[in-house]
Specification:
By secondary structure, the protein is an alpha+beta fold. The protein has four helices and ten strands; from the N terminus they run H-H-E-E-H-E-E-E-E-E-E-E-E-H.
């Protein structure tokens, strides 16, 4: 009888993955880069209609700012997403048009934020408690404080494979998930993202977003360019609406 020796598996020292898994991961990166090149013309075409926002955005009064449920906690900067969330809320309060609230169930709009890693591939820790923040948002002078809130957030999404910003709600009462914290590899999340959805709907993150802004340093503290661009988009939409007979 002929016995064949089992070939030992090779592992990548940097990631701890088998070489076959590493090759598969890099093939996905190449695919994303190629896809981004093909999508550039589409993005230019959409710019012609950038002032077309759904009516519910222009009539909105309240907004809930949440961390992308599919975003992991950065090993290098664990508080990055929470800081970005608070910076966006402060910028919205300073704007004065939209009142930030904590309950996604009562908000007219839901803004999903995610702090980019600056790298195409990054190691993070998935933690379902990121959006489990109790409290209420109040502003006195130049300070923003959080008070007590009771109850849980309603479901945001039930599809775990729908991509960044549209995954299952990871916090309490926010959909499915994989349980407790665990390591994960994020691919293609180099830039900051700011995505606006309609509130008051079932699983709102499963619907098409009303507006999206993805850019390097888009959630930069203090200035928060994403909020500034959102303000411009609303101003342009209102201007265009005023010209419509």
């Amino acid at each position: 009888m002929l016995w064949l020796a089992r070939r030992p598996q090779a592992y990548d020292l940097a990631t701890g993955l088998q070489m076959g898994e590493v090759a598969s991961m890099y093939r996905r990166i190449v695919f994303l880069l190629i896809a981004s090149v093909w999508l550039v013309p589409c993005g230019v075409a959409r710019d012609k209609n950038k002032n077309r926002l759904p009516p519910y955005v222009l009539s909105a009064h309240t907004v809930a700012v949440i961390i992308d449920p599919s975003a992991g906690i950065s090993i290098d900067d664990p508080q990055a997403n929470r800081v970005a969330q608070k910076d966006v809320e402060t910028a919205l309060i300073n704007w004065g048009r939209l009142q930030p609230v904590l309950s996604t169930g009562t908000a007219d709009l839901i803004i999903v934020v995610r702090k980019g890693s600056g790298r195409l591939v990054s190691q993070t820790i998935s933690d379902p408690r990121q959006n489990g923040r109790p409290g209420s948002i109040d502003q006195t002078g130049n300070t923003t404080s959080i008070g007590a809130q009771h109850g849980q957030q309603p479901g945001l999404s039930g599809d775990a494979s729908s991509g960044p910003g549209m995954g299952p709600g990871a916090g309490p009462g926010m959909g499915g998930g994989m349980g407790g914290p665990h390591p994960q590899t994020e691919i293609g999340e180099a830039d900051d993202s700011f995505v606006v959805y309609e509130g008051g709907t079932e699983n709102p993150l499963d619907h098409s977003p009303a507006w999206r802004y993805v850019a390097r340093d888009g959630l930069l503290p203090h200035t928060v360019p994403a909020v500034a661009e959102f303000r411009k988009a609303i101003a342009e939409a209102e201007k265009a609406a005023a010209k419509t007979p």
